[in-house]
């Protein structure tokens, strides 16, 4: 009995959680009049298929390409810089490491909207705003790197130290042991964390909005704003755009879902 | 020829003195056991030999060459870890030949030597399995195989059998010993189990709190323990100790009892001692050159071939080992016969053998 109550409760919570997503797809498919109809309809009566039209009229290909470019850049940069760092933080134990970890956790607390002004001023001075997408990659990498390091460190901590020692005794160098033993064993955690920061960077808004001036270099999140006029709001168009933007992310997430869950709990049970 | 020389070795962890002036010489081809209670520094010493721990002072030489400051790969030692430390993402074959692949040996040599080692250990048909698909005993063999394919100067074992069940442990004990005899390589074996140390090693080093308490052949330690700790640690069931004080006439009187034990050796009057008696040197029947004390039987533990009779003598527990089955029951008043030729005396203050 208790099981069913919990199941129903769980389903209800999930429904509440997923309702906005459902509403997005629904609105994308409704006509403009149906959107404002009261009482609202929960299934479109006159289905609109204007995905292709929105894609073409808003030049979404370019926006999404920019978003992909930035997200890929951030992921490559963060994994390159963060993996070694996370490994060292997992292996060395002393006061300085504790302080470094604390500082890293502190950095995560600072929101982008707070950081963007000093970053803008600094990037402007050193001329980075001339290549705004690289500027966004750098700023966003700084933003996600702490999260990446903290999550990756947890993965490395789970790999028993003796494996590394066995590799050293077997004749490996420290770097060899890292690449042959630690990295393959932490692979799942690294992959999962990379996907998380990729998705986060794909949806980045504040830095792109502030650091990128030219429309043709803008990302998909900022591109969504082109629908906002002073008088008219094309809700159908906005939701269609959002659906196009979000659906690939959802698909990727669902495909990797099993890996992500196992990655986050890997090593919890031997 | 000496293969390993440990010379005035000290190791500090911050304020903790983990190894205190350790001196050990190990001959080429011998099997040395480092034994002691947990936290005595035996594993630290082994890890120091492997190069996994830095030393604070002193010297370690392997095959005549000082290895202080050298990383593990320049020492040519192989180690079997307590947890086996098999690489989970490599199959048995790759686990075993990782060291040779690192050295970029020719392919034929790698597969040849892996195959030979696998045959030796009975792993021939498991080469393509991952460690998670192996039983505990098989994993242990792979860990051994990983060490023997390399043909190293020294084998280091860190409690390799402690994760196996009792029957397998006894079996692997003799396997390791046989393997050692065939390869004739120098082996250092860490264990907390003194039976393992006694049955496997040529040379036993007993450690406590970072200090080497005594070293020598197993029977040497058993027959002539240098102090009370070694006497109590080596041998199962453990040696019995009764407190006693020397009298004017050179005899010993048990504390809490008036029994006198006459000894044909000179001891200073008033000195306090522990009298050490091995369980097998006690008897319920008279024997050659013995003396008898009143005792009460408080327990009987039978293993079938041997019976351990727990007695109370001068309000101290004493265990007697009897081969066969004695006709006593709990609560019986008996005469305990002590063989005077096999008594050990330890000074109660210094704990050293007197």
Oligomer: heterodimer
Largest sheet of chain B: 6 strands, mixed
Task: Specify the structural class of chain A.
Answer: mainly alpha
> What gross morphology of chain A would you assign?
globular
Which strand-content bin applies to the residues of chain A? under 5%
The gyration radius over C-alpha positions of chain A equals 23 Å
How is the main sheet of chain A built?
none
Number-wise, the strands of chain B total: 20
> Helix content range of the residues of chain B, please?
10-25%
CATH topology of the domain at 60-236 and 257-264 in chain A: MetI-like fold
Tell me, what is the CATH class of the domain at 60-236 and 257-264 in chain A?
A: Mainly Alpha
- Globular, elongated, flat, extended or rod-shaped: what is the shape of chain B? elongated
Counting H and I runs of at least 4 residues, what is the number of helices of chain A? 12
Radius of gyration of chain B: 24 Å
H/E topology pattern of chain B: EEEHEEEHHHEHEHEEHHEEEEEEEEEE
What percent of residues of chain A adopt helix (DSSP H or I)? over 70%
Strand order of the largest sheet of chain B: 6-7-8-3-9-10
Note the beta-strand portion of chain B. 35-45%
Low-confidence parts of chain B, pLDDT < 50 over ≥5 residues?
none
- The CATH architecture category of the domain at 60-236 and 257-264 in chain A equals Orthogonal Bundle
Largest interface: A-B, 17 and 23 residues
Please supply descriptive tags for the structure shown above:
heterodimer; A: 270 residues; mainly alpha; MetI-like fold; globular; disordered C terminus; B: 354 residues; alpha+beta; 6-stranded mixed sheet; 5-stranded antiparallel sheet
